[in-house]
Specification:
Strand order of the largest sheet: 2-1-5-4-3
CATH class of the largest domain: Alpha Beta
Radius of gyration: 56 Å
Distance between the termini: 127 Å
CATH architecture of the largest domain: 2-Layer Sandwich
Strand content: 15-25%
Shape: elongated
Oligomer: single chain
CATH superfamily of the largest domain: GAF domain
C-alpha cells in the first residue's frame, strides 16, 4: 500500500493515480455506508466506532471526539487509544480556537514529548447546525493531513454527525412519545374523574368517588377531610387498595379528631392553601404527629404510608377541605408529576363539591322564592281587589308613561278605559281641562309629572266621562319608588268632587247673600257709634265710653270679615275682573313696606326691602296685588319674632318675577303647611291663639295671585321662620290658575 506521502503526490505525478483514486473511492463508499451501520445506535457507540474507523482508515497515532448535548446536558467525549485520560497531544489542541463548522480541517502542531517526534493534529468541527463538537486526529507525519485525508476525514465526521443527530432525534422522540402516552393516560383519568364527579349532586357521594378514582391510579390509599364547625376535620371519604386497611384510616380519624391548627401535613395544606408534597414519610414525622400517645403512633405505623401528597380543596377562594393521597404497599415515591395530577383532580373535585352545595342552596332558595312568590301573588291579588273596590279612581303607569292598571271607578267615572296607552294618548282622546276651562297639556298632567318624579296634590280638573257628562275632580299623583330608591312608575288617585263643588257654590252664594245683607246694617252700626263717639257728652261715664269703643272695633272687624267673605266668594266664583295695567313692581313693594312699617315698630321689628336696581315691569291689578303683599307682611308681623326681621325681596327668574316675604319666627309645622291656604283654617299654636283672625287672608291671597296667572306657595322649616313665595309672569297676564303642583 502506498504511503501517505506518495498518496499526496499521486494526483500530481500520476504513476499510481488510478490505483490511488480507486482506493479513495472505496474508502468514501465505505464511509458513506456508515450511517446504515450506526442506525438506531446510542451516541457513545457511534463515537467509538468513528474513532476506530479513523484510526484504521487514516493510520492515525491517536484520535479524539467530543460532541455537545443539543438538549443542554453535559458533553460526551471519547478517544483512542483507550486510556484513563485523552492523549497528551490533544490537551493543547482542545483548548485552541475551534475551527469553523463545516470548514476544512485545521492542522495544529502539538508539542512533542521528550524522546518523541513532533505530532501534527488535524482539528475538524461538524458542519451541521444541530450538533456541535470537535474531532481531533493526530499523526507524526509532517505532511498530515493530505488533501485526500482531509476529504476522508470530513466525510467520516459528517456521517457520524448525521447518525448522532438521528440518534438524538430518536431519543427525543422516545421521550416525547412516553410523555404523550403519560399525558394521554392522565387526560383519560381526569376525563373519567369529571364524568364521575358530575354524576351526583350529593357532595358526600361525590367525595367518595374522588377517593375511589385516586386508587390505584394515583395512590394506594386516599382520604378526603372536610372542614366543619370549630375548624375541626371530618373524614367523609376513604379508599384503599386493601379493603381491610380502609377501616384503619376511618379509625384513625374517629379516635384522633384533627383540627386545622395541628402539626399534620393535612392541617398545613388547609392553613396555607398550598399542597404538601412529602416524598418520603419518616418515622420522625409520625412521632411528631402522635406526640406522647403510643397508641396513636402505633396506628400511624399500621397505616404504613411511605410517601404522601395532601392537596387543599379550594373553590372560589374558599377552602372546603383536603384530599390526601398515600403510597403504602407499592413503595413508589411521589414527585412533581404526581403532585400536578393530584392538584388537578383536587381542583375538579372542589368545583364538583361546590356545585353540589350551590345546587342544594339553589334548591332551598327556589323553594323559598316559590313560597315568597306565592305569598306575593296572593298579596298582589288582595291588593288589586282592594284597589278595584275603592270608590275613588286609581290609575297606575309604568316608567315609560304607559297605563298599566285602572280600577273600576277610574274606568267608569273618569274615562280611563284602555290599558297600555300612554298618558299623551289618553290626553289626546279625553282632553281634561283646568278649573277655568283651559286644556291641560299632556306633560303637565299630574300622572305625567309623577312619572318624572314630581308629587302633585289636589289638582283641580274637569273630566268628561264616557257618557259625555263633565264632572269636577281632584287628582293627586306620586312616584312609585322601589326598595333600591329607583322610580319605576307612578300612581294617580282621582275622585269626583262635583257634589262638593255644587255644595261649595251654594255655600258661596249663601255667604255672598248674607255678607251683602250684613254690610248695610253693619255700616249703619259703625256710623252710628262713630257719631255718638264724635259727639260724646263730657259727663258720659267711662264704662259706657269703653263699651262704645269696643262695639265700634267689633263692628269694624265684622265688616272686614264680611268684605273678605264677599271678595273670596267673588274670586272663586269667577266674578272678579282684574283691572291690569303695566307698572313697576318695585313701587308696589315700597308702598306695602311703608304701610306695614308702623305696625312692625310696635313689636320692635325691622322691615328690610331688597329690590333690584333695574325696573321690574309687570301687567298687574295694583290694588289687589298690594292687598296680597300687605296680607303676607301682616302675617309676618303677627307671627314673626318680636325684635326680629321681616324681609321683602323681588328678583327676576327666567320669565317670572319672584316675590319673597320672609320672617324669622317659629315657622309653620309640616302638617299645617298644606292646609293654611284652606278657608277658615287656623293651626293650633300659641302664636295663632294670640292673634285673632278669620283664616281667609291666605286663601284670598292665593286666589288673587292665581288670577294673575301666578303661583303662591310656602317654604318653612319649623323653628327657622317661614317664607311665602309669589311667582308672576312678566308682561301679558297668564290666563287661569295654576295646577297646584308642588
Amino acid at each position: 500500500m502506498p504511503s501517505a506521502g506518495t498518496e499526496a503526490t499521486a494526483l500530481e505525478s500520476g504513476p499510481h493515480e488510478t490505483r490511488i483514486l480507486r482506493r479513495h473511492a472505496r474508502d468514501l463508499t465505505a464511509l458513506l455506508a456508515l450511517p446504515a451501520m450506526w442506525h438506531g445506535r446510542e451516541p457513545t457507540y457511534i463515537m467509538g466506532s468513528l474513532l476506530e474507523v479513523l484510526l484504521s482508515l487514516l493510520r492515525l497515532d491517536s484520535a479524539y471526539v467530543r460532541f455537545d448535548d443539543p438538549e443542554g446536558g453535559p458533553a460526551i467525549e471519547d478517544w483512542r487509544p483507550q486510556s484513563p485520560a485523552p492523549p497528551a497531544e490533544f490537551v493543547h489542541a482542545v483548548v485552541a480556537p475551534l475551527p469553523v463548522p463545516g470548514g476544512p480541517a485545521v492542522s495544529v502542531a502539538a508539542p512533542a514529548a521528550a524522546g518523541h517526534d513532533s505530532i501534527r493534529v488535524a482539528r475538524l468541527a461538524p458542519g451541521f447546525v444541530h450538533e456541535r463538537g470537535v474531532v481531533l486526529a493526530s499523526s507524526r507525519r509532517t505532511d498530515f493531513p493530505t488533501a485526500l485525508e482531509q476529504v476522508r476525514l470530513q466525510v467520516a465526521v459528517d456521517q457520524a454527525t448525521l447518525s448522532l443527530h438521528s440518534a438524538h432525534l430518536l431519543a427525543r422522540e422516545r421521550v416525547a412519545r412516553a410523555a404523550a402516552e403519560a399525558a394521554h393516560r392522565q387526560l383519560a383519568f381526569l376525563a373519567e374523574a369529571s364524568t364521575q364527579l358530575a354524576g351526583s349532586l350529593d357532595y358526600e357521594r361525590t367525595l367518595q368517588r374522588v377517593a375511589d378514582l385516586a386508587v390505584p391510579t394515583l395512590a394506594d390509599a386516599c382520604v378526603v377531610d372536610i372542614v366543619v364547625a370549630d375548624e375541626a376535620l371530618e373524614r367523609v371519604a376513604v379508599a384503599h387498595i386493601d379493603a381491610a386497611k380502609a377501616a384503619l384510616l376511618h379509625e384513625l380519624r374517629r379516635r384522633y379528631p384533627a383540627h386545622v391548627y395541628e402539626p399534620h401535613p393535612i392541617a398545613q395544606a388547609l392553613r396555607s392553601g398550598r399542597p404538601q408534597l412529602i416524598p418520603e414519610v419518616s418515622d420522625a414525622m409520625r412521632v411528631r404527629i402522635a406526640g406522647d400517645d403510643a397508641a396513636h403512633l402505633q396506628l400511624l405505623r399500621s397505616v404504613g404510608a411511605t410517601s404522601m401528597i395532601s392537596v387543599p380543596l379550594v373553590a372560589h377562594q374558599r377552602t372546603l377541605g383536603a384530599m390526601t393521597c398515600l403510597r403504602t404497599e407499592s413503595g413508589r415515591r411521589y414527585g412533581p408529576a404526581e403532585l400536578a395530577l393530584a392538584e388537578e383532580l383536587a381542583r375538579r373535585a372542589a368545583l364538583a363539591v361546590d356545585n353540589t352545595r350551590l345546587y342544594r342552596a339553589a334548591q332551598a332558595g327556589l323553594a323559598r322564592e316559590q313560597a315568597l312568590r306565592t305569598a306575593a301573588e296572593k298579596l298582589a291579588a288582595e291588593q288589586e281587589a282592594i284597589l278595584r273596590q275603592i270608590a275613588d279612581g286609581v290609575v297606575i303607569a309604568d316608567g315609560a308613561g304607559r297605563i298599566t292598571f285602572v280600577n273600576e271607578a277610574a274606568r267608569r267615572h273618569f274615562g280611563f278605559e284602555t290599558l297600555g296607552v300612554t298618558i299623551e294618548e289618553y290626553a289626546a282622546t279625553h282632553r281634561p281641562l283646568h278649573r277655568d276651562g283651559q286644556p291641560w297639556s299632556p306633560e303637565e298632567l299630574p300622572l305625567a309629572c309623577a312619572v318624572r318624579g314630581e308629587t302633585v296634590i289636589a289638582a283641580d280638573m274637569r273630566v268628561r266621562r264616557a257618557d259625555g257628562q263633565e264632572i269636577a275632580a281632584l287628582a293627586s299623583a306620586s312616584p312609585l319608588v322601589g326598595e333600591d330608591g329607583a322610580p319605576f312608575g307612578a300612581v294617580l288617585t282621582i275622585y269626583d268632587v262635583s257634589a262638593q263643588a255644587a255644595l261649595e257654590r251654594q255655600k258661596d252664594e249663601f255667604f255672598a247673600n248674607v255678607s251683602h245683607d250684613l254690610r248695610t246694617p253693619l255700616a249703619a252700626i259703625v256710623a252710628s257709634i262713630g257719631v255718638v263717639l264724635a259727639n260724646e257728652p263730657a259727663a258720659m261715664p267711662a264704662p259706657l265710653h269703653h263699651m262704645l269703643v269696643n262695639s265700634e272695633q267689633a263692628a269694624e272687624r265684622m265688616a272686614g270679615l264680611v268684605d273678605n267673605l264677599l271678595e273670596l266668594t267673588r274670586v272663586q266664583a269667577g266674578r272678579v275682573q282684574l283691572v291690569c295695567a303695566p307698572g313697576d313692581l318695585r313701587e308696589l313693594a315700597r308702598r306695602a313696606v311703608d304701610a306695614i312699617a308702623p305696625l312692625a315698630q310696635t313689636r320692635g321689628q325691622r322691615v328690610e326691602l331688597d329690590l333690584p336696581a333695574e325696573p321690574l315691569p309687570a301687567l298687574v291689578d295694583a290694588p289687589r296685588l298690594e292687598r296680597v303683599l300687605l296680607n303676607l307682611l301682616s302675617n309676618a308681623h303677627k307671627y314673626g319674632r318680636a325684635g326680629g326681621t321681616i324681609r321683602l325681596s323681588l328678583a327676576r327668574r327666567s320669565e317670572d318675577v319672584v316675590v319673597a316675604v320672609a320672617d324669622d319666627g317659629p315657622g309653620i309645622a309640616v302638617a299645617d303647611q298644606e292646609r293654611i291656604f284652606e278657608r277658615y283654617y287656623r293651626s293650633e299654636t300659641e302664636a295663632t291663639r294670640r292673634n285673632q283672625g278669620s283664616g281667609l287672608g291666605l286663601p284670598i291671597a292665593r286666589a288673587l295671585v292665581e288670577l294673575h296667572g301666578g303661583r303662591l306657595w310656602l317654604e318653612s322649616t319649623p323653628g327657622a321662620g317661614a317664607t311665602f313665595w309669589i311667582a308672576l309672569p312678566r308682561g301679558q297676564r297668564a290666563g287661569g290658575p295654576q295646577d297646584g303642583r308642588l
